[in-house]
Amino acid sequence: MKNCVIVIPVLDPEESFFEYVKSLVSEEFLSVIIINDGSSEESAELFTQCAGLKSVRLLQHVVNQGKGRALKTAFDYILKNEELSQAEGVITVDADGQHRLNDVIHICEELRSRQETLILGSRSFSGSQVPFKSRLGNTLTSKVFQLFYNRKLKDTQTGLRGLTLDILQYFVSLEGERFSYETNMLIEAVRKKMTISECTIETIYINDNQGTHFRPLKDSLEIYWLLVKNFVAFMSVSLSSFLIDISLFQVFILLLGILPSSRRILLATIIARAGSSLYNYLMNRSIVFKSKQSFKQTLFFYYALVAVEALVSAYGVSLLFGLTGLRELYLKILTDACIFFVSYRIQKFLIFRD
After folding, report:
1. 150 — phi, psi (to 5°)?
2. Which of 78, 89, 174, 264 satisfies CB 3.0 to 4.6 Å to 111 for a cystine?
3. What is the sign, positive or negative, of the torsion defined by CA atoms of 141, 145, 147, 153?
4. What distances in angstroms separate CA 309 from CA 234, 285, 291, 303, 305, one per listed residue?
5. What's the chain's average pLDDT?
6. d(Cα 290, Cα 228) in Å, to the nearest integer?
7. Considering just the CA atoms, what is the radius of gyration of the chain in Å?
8. What is the model's pLDDT at position 161?
9. CA–CA separation, 32 vs 171, rounded Å?
10. Measured between alpha carbons, how far is 31 from 55 in angstroms, rounded to an integer?
């Protein structure tokens, strides 16, 4: 017996689904869990046939709740079941037959004696059989994921995944009800410093992937929002910091009106920058990056970064001005935009890293 649990979320399956389930059952996995995610009545007999197979367990959603919720339903069931919670791992499989039995078995073998590991069945997108929208979507998502999470993955949208049982608990209450949940699994794996490995699998698209329940616009927007929302939060904090800086500067210009203009401007600038930078630090630490690092350590490196950024900005503008002769303001905007993005990555992966 193969000590892995197969999980298949399914909505309105084709007739071929029964034969696919039979092939999985024949390999004697510990259990095959099917989650009927609110399928129509026409599929009732098919689910009854599947439920009659040895080792198959059928879980049902009365109404469609999405692939993410279906996976979480199965994960929660496994963790609460005395027998299944002793498995070496869990393998998620799509219901459309695009995951070959040999690839599923290979994932199961890879899970043996592993800990805190997420295994992705990675497809190749270079073949002519790959629909253009699938090739474009996965390539773009992979690039964005690498950009914001510093991890290069060939296939971020694969449904064939192996999870060692010790990480299953982290995915039960994870955000996401539909396809974005699978992207959030990858983000959580990076955050928890899990081992993420990729196994090459056969690339199969049946009828140009017409059977998919993926909504190109809405589901894509959910996925990309999930990927960039942390950066958007960083931008929002930076904008509010700028407004605080300007406001404090104006207030202290008025309060210090009795001083000479040069001293008044210098003091107002220092006080405003001190206040806005402290606000920026506290918001980034607690809200944006949710860091648990000590205040002493992160505060020191944060202000060291601020100092370096100021020097790089000044030197960069001067250098570009000498090379191009363009207006300093335009060069300042360009230079600081580059510094801003680099600063995000430094703060995310170094200063405020988990």
Report:
1. 60, 35
2. 89
3. negative
4. 16, 18, 21, 10, 6
5. 88
6. 16
7. 26
8. 95
9. 19
10. 5
